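ARCHIVE CARD
CATEGORY: sequence design from structure
SOURCE FIELD: tokenized fold
FIELD CONTENT:
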């Protein structure tokens, strides 16, 4: 039988289930990655699960998000992560070494392997043919301990690229084109597999941009073949031994095919406040910009920044514009420094930030009131920049640089074409990556926990019935940035769920935390694609802390739904979408005979005690997830299973 790349990797890693679309499968995970804002929770959970050391081929802990140290909290988190990495056999990428996805692509990716990361942009590694998936922290902790990662067998969409990108049109415009076509929920349950003659002209960092922003489609992952371009990249990183060829069989079958002629694309911009609100740059030409940010795991590679330097060479940013640049990794920054491009950026007036997520996650550089901020990032969700009134637009580095110079959104095609080539050799220096300790030394390491590191909430076994009021009615496409906002002053609280709980869902309703506490918890009612965006399990753990028992939505985003299950919160969907309209805040809901109803099938009956009607909801989860919910979450479930296996 002919196979596509996704099927080949899944087949080689399948430990449970059959590869029937929609059915739950368990995959062996070769590599894991964590970053600091989700990582503290992962290591607390790994500790609670009682594993002595990771069982993966390679696990890496990055510090890249929480790098602004305005108090002791972030530095304490770094020490905690560093000590946990030393204890559990994990590589530790020190602060300053770069953004997890950029560094992982450069230094650790291996075609054909699986990677699970506690960050939604983990699929960036799909650029070299890894099956890389973003997940909640608890799933990553279990995978680090050698457990399978469970997901529903996805559909595989083939994106067939032909032609050649015209000058000034970039990889960012490819993925923005796809987002415009499919929307932020168009990729849920799907893996996007790229093919076609157009690939020959797409470098690995360009493929990385596309795979990275596949997360904005809600996709499970995105993957490219491992070909000559991959070999060239790995060779330039001094890692040709990690290469193997990986391609789809001739005539491989896909669930869906999208044809894209690269020659017909043009520069695009995503408008506030969603990455799929895409328009042509030429429609916005002349829009005044106050801030331009270049960087993030989407667009901060060496060639991206060399291109920016070439555009800015010898010029000065106008006084009304603030241009900030955060290189993706220390490799990128030191190469820019070596060849003089860094001086060109500095001389043009760019403010150079450290190699980290920075403004992408609102860690500094919040724009001014009502500002227009043009960013090369992947997300422009409402309020994420740290300034609720700001309008954030997403674009390529080319559009960003030329617009920064002009002080207004500008089509880069007004410039003469330039050619910037990938380097033959990258500057390799892994001295900021601390390798794992041997077991006997690791055993002696004491884990360092500062006062900000608090226990995480744990749920109890599912009760016989659930009773509570509707705490909030929420619209479509609510992001995890709405549920658990993460500006600079809240990110240091990621290891402190009680402190975070005062900020839950406040962009939707500032009174929510207070109401949830007063009512002793209850239900959330939401529209479509609830929980899109980040993998942060805080968007489930904090509601759990506030007593949320179930979320009834029209539909869910993949990672968030799994995080709810892992926390023991019921993710329910309306059988009849119209019932969403029949509910209102304050309605008292009751679900009786819960365990019986759950074990009997997919459909549960909910009583609206206030209005005197009943309605049906689906609990669309696997048999294993039902057991997790009954046990009160993945932690008690995993412990229970480990106990049962011991006594067998
Ligand atoms: C993001 O881009 O939203 C983040 C911050 O990287 C998150 C992780 C987090 O919330 O810590 C993600 O993408 O998963
Ligand atoms: Fe960091 Fe932004 Fe990438 Fe998230 S999307 S990992 S915050 S650079």
């Amino acid at each position: 039988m002919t196979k596509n790349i996704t099927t080949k990797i899944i087949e080689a890693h399948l430990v449970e289930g059959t590869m029937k679309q929609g059915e739950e499968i368990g995959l062996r995970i070769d590599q894991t990655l964590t970053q600091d804002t989700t990582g503290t929770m992962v290591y607390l959970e790994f500790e609670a699960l009682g594993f002595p050391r990771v069982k993966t081929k390679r696990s890496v802990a990055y510090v890249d998000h929480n790098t602004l140290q305005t108090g002791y909290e972030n530095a304490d988190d770094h020490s905690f992560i560093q000590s946990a990495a030393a204890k559990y056999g994990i590589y530790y990428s020190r602060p300053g070494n770069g953004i997890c996805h950029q560094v992982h692509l450069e230094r650790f990716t291996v075609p054909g392997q699986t990677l699970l990361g506690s960050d939604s942009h983990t699929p960036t590694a799909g650029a070299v043919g890894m099956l890389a998936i973003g997940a909640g922290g608890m799933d990553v902790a279990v995978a680090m301990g050698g457990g399978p990662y469970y997901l529903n067998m996805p559909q595989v969409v083939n994106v067939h690229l032909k032609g050649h990108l015209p000058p000034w049109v970039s990889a960012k415009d490819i993925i923005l084109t796809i987002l415009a076509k499919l929307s932020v929920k168009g990729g849920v349950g799907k893996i996007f597999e790229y093919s076609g003659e157009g690939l020959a002209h797409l470098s690995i960092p360009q493929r990385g941009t596309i795979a990275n922003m596949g997360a904005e489609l809600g996709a499970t992952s995105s993957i490219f073949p491992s070909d000559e371009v991959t070999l060239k990249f790995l060779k330039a990183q001094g890692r040709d031994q990690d290469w193997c060829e990986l391609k789809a069989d001739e005539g491989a079958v896909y669930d869906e095919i999208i044809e894209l002629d690269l020659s017909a694309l043009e520069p695009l911009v995503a408008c506030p406040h969603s990455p799929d609100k895409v328009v042509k740059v030429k429609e916005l030409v002349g829009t005044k910009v106050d801030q331009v940010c270049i960087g993030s795991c989407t667009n901060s590679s060496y060639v991206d920044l060399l291109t920016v330097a070439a555009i800015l060479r010898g010029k000065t940013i106008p006084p009304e514009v603030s241009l900030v640049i955060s290189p993706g990794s220390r490799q990128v920054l030191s190469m820019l420094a070596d060849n003089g491009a860094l001086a060109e950026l500095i001389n043009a007036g760019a403010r150079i930030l450290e190699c980290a997520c920075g403004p992408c996650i609102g860690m500094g550089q919040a724009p001014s009131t009502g500002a227009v901020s043009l960013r090369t990032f992947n997300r422009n969700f409402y309020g994420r920049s740290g300034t609720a009134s700001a309008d954030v637009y997403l674009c390529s580095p080319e559009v960003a640089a030329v617009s920064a110079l002009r002080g207004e959104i500008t089509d880069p095609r007004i410039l003469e074409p330039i050619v910037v080539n990938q380097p033959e050799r990258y500057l390799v220096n892994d001295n900021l990556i601390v390798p794992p300790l041997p077991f006997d030394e690791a055993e002696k390491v004491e884990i360092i926990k500062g006062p900000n590191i608090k226990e995480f909430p744990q749920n109890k076994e599912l009760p016989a019935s659930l009773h509570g009021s509707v705490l909030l009615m929420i619209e479509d496409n609510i992001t995890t940035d709405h549920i658990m906002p993460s500006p600079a002053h809240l990110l240091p609280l990621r290891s402190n769920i009680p402190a975070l709980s005062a900020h839950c869902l406040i962009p939707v309703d500032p009174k929510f935390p207070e109401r949830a506490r007063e009512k002793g918890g209850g239900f959330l009612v939401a529209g479509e694609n609830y929980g899109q965006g980040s993998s942060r399990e805080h968007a489930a753990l904090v509601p759990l802390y506030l007593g949320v028992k179930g979320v009834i939505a029209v539909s869910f985003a993949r990672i968030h739904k799994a995080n709810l299950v892992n926390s023991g919160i019921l993710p329910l969907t309306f059988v009849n979408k119209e019932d969403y309209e029949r509910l209102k805040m304050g309605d008292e809901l009751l679900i009786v005979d819960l365990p019986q109803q759950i074990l009997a099938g997919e459909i549960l009956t909910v009583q609206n005690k206030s209005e005197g009607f009943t309605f049906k909801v689906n609990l669309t989860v696997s048999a294993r997830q039902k057991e997790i919910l009954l046990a009160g979450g993945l932690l008690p479930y995993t412990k229970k299973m480990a106990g049962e296996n011991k006594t067998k």
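CARD ANNOTATION: The chain has a mean pLDDT of 97. The pocket of alpha-methylisocitric acid (ligand 1) is lined by residues 37-38, 65, 119-121, 134, 361, 379, 486, 533-536 (CB under 6 Å).
SHELF: design records, drawer C
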